[in-house]
Amino acid sequence: MSAADVLLGLTIVTVWGANFTVIKIGLTGVPPMLLAALRYVLVAFPAIFFVPRPKAPVKYWIAYGLTVGAGQFGSLFLAMSLGMPAGLASVVLQSQSVFTLIFAAWLLKERISKARILGIVISGIGLALITWSLGDAASAPVPALALLLTLLAAGFWGLSNVVIRRAVQAVASMGERLDMLSMVVWSALVPPLPLLALAVVLHTPIEMARAFVAMSGASIFSVAYLAFAATFLGYGGWNQLLARYPASTVAPLSLLVPVVGLVVAMVVLGERLSATEWLGAALVVGGLRMGQGRSANAGLLSRNLPR
Known about the structure:
Elements: H1 3-26, H2 32-44, H3 58-81, H4 86-92, H5 96-107, H6 114-132, H7 144-172, H8 180-187, H9 192-202, H10 205-213, H11 217-244, H12 247-250, H13 256-269, H14 275-292, H15 296-303
């Protein structure tokens, strides 16, 4: 990769890594489902008037919007509102690659190599260490429900990867190529309604209205950052890199996302991890690197990163 493209890749990784801290800041005083819904409204509008519809059948981008929006980010935002630290969330959420391999083997009948199985085991040990250290006095307390919701978010992310794989195959059968930016923009029309429905279940409509009217500048910045920086800048630049280089060259950069996430959370939010959690985080990232490999799954994972 050229120096300019390496710089572009590192910029995108930094934007995506800081994403988790921005979410944490945005959740101050704003119900999680409302914040997630506003993020998707801003992704969809006015972009749908300028970005062409994805070439994939409607059912795929509806399924993608439900799994990523209502599933992944609904669970993640709720987890972080319940006390999941931003830095740790950036690590645990990367277990999506494990879920992706499992779902791909189950639903797409893809084989999982021995190296990937070993990677899953190593990442699993890392997650077990993180779970074991919950409530450690040396680190930020992590409620068990918050950790489970983060893992649920990772599971939805893995399922959305399979949806993308199906969409890619459907578009390829028509002799076309799926543009991920158009998929992201048009699928953003789907999550707001189910997210707002969940918000009404968790909070009264009056509470929602008051929270919306009283949104702080930090929360407004968070929504704008998630929509424009993490989505448009991130996806636009990432797709440029994928167009110039093999996915196996670009994908490893994604492993820096949790590293940046941990560092930014430490600097901005003052979060600290215990020695056990650091070891668990290192095992998760190491296992993910082993499981990423050079296959089609690496390309799939490299296209579907935290926005």
